[in-house]
Amino acid sequence: MGTKHEQILSFIESLSVGNKISVRQIAKELNVSEGTAYRAIKEAENEGLVSTIERVGTIRIERKQKENFERLTFAEVISIVDGQVLGGREGLYKTLNRFVIGAMKLDAMMRYTEKDSLLIVGNRIKAHELAIQAGAAVLITGGFDTEEHVKKLADEKELPIMSTSYDTFTVAAMINRAIYDQLIKKEIVLVGDIYTPFEDAYYLKAKDRLERWYQFNEETTHSRYPVVDENNRVTGMVTSKDVIGKEKSSLIEKVMTKNPMTVQTKTSLAYAAHMMVWEGIEIMPVVDTHHKLTGLISRQDVLKALQYIQRQPQIGETIDDIVSSRLEIGEESNNKTIYHAEITPQMTNQLGTLSYGVFTSIVTESSSRLLRHYKKGDLVVENISIYFIKPVQLESKLEVRPRILEVGRKFAKVDVEVFNDRTLVGKALLMAQLIDR
């Protein structure tokens, strides 16, 4: 038997897709406090097991696979467009394969409206009815309602018919943006994508003898192993430094280092890499929310994965991608390297000037390129100090001048100056750890 929290998660996972749940119901059925039930439901929501919709409640949904992230559930669509459900609530957990904008004649519209799609249309009752009959959900724009017989049909077919106050064009743009964000999220590699699972991991128990460490060391050539208690919770780490001068008959719990650094499966690979490189950690335990060991991740695995990612084409374009594609080399010599960039609409803030975040990306990208030119390797940013940044207008042409102040085998310091029309508009200092390829 696990903890009450784990029991609630298991119970939620056992429910059939489409089931409605509540804090009070969970608390009553499993004999737990409402606070415990609430926390477990929130975690289930984070794990993609349930979805909470205003005026509808919390329902069990299909857990999304990473490769299907570009598909939204109708429940997510409701949240995106701040809409309300008029009928067919039982189908909110379903995913849509595509959406169709109903801005054409009825017969043409229905040729494109297929099963599992979403018809976005205004106040056209016949279109609402035909779409539901064809197996598609309906999103009515402009805040309009529909007739009762259509709502009844939606309930029978378990297909949502929804309404939003936004116009058709805005709704399509909002859904497109949500799918785009999902695609970018899909490209972010997590620790859970590459870690070695618990069944294949090498770990020590607190009551083991030190000779067990030596046995693992011969088998794997690694020198760090997590230590777990009787409940498989990580309590320490044993490294080569810990075993120096100790008898092989010593208990592991007597020589281990307590409270080691850990990551979770949902930790991003980039963050794990930063921790491991900066702290010089070779192996790191992967734990769940209750600090139970679920696997291991090694520095070699992380670096290999990061190098693999760099060679892959990205589907979604992030701010870093935009900066990287716009930053062009202008002048290069032994003494200096100058880059040029033009400010595009995506690089501006709400005032139409260069955003602070994009300026940070320009500093990082130009420094990274300069260091790659002198030292064949990558960097992990430790700190960026921005001394000042002046407003820079849309379509301005920037001249970026990174300059190495200090560089060693593992550390670098770069000064970056940014000019617009020969006027200094930004200045920053970047400090980074270097990773050899």
UniProtKB/TrEMBL annotation:
Keywords tagged on the record: CBS domain, DNA-binding, Transcription, Transcription regulation
Protein's UniProt keywords contain Transmembrane: no
Domain CBS, residue spans: 195-254, 256-314
Gene Ontology molecular-function annotations: DNA binding; DNA-binding transcription factor activity
Coiled-coil stretches: none
Xref: SMART domains: CBS
Recorded superkingdom: Bacteria
The protein's name: DRTGG domain-containing protein
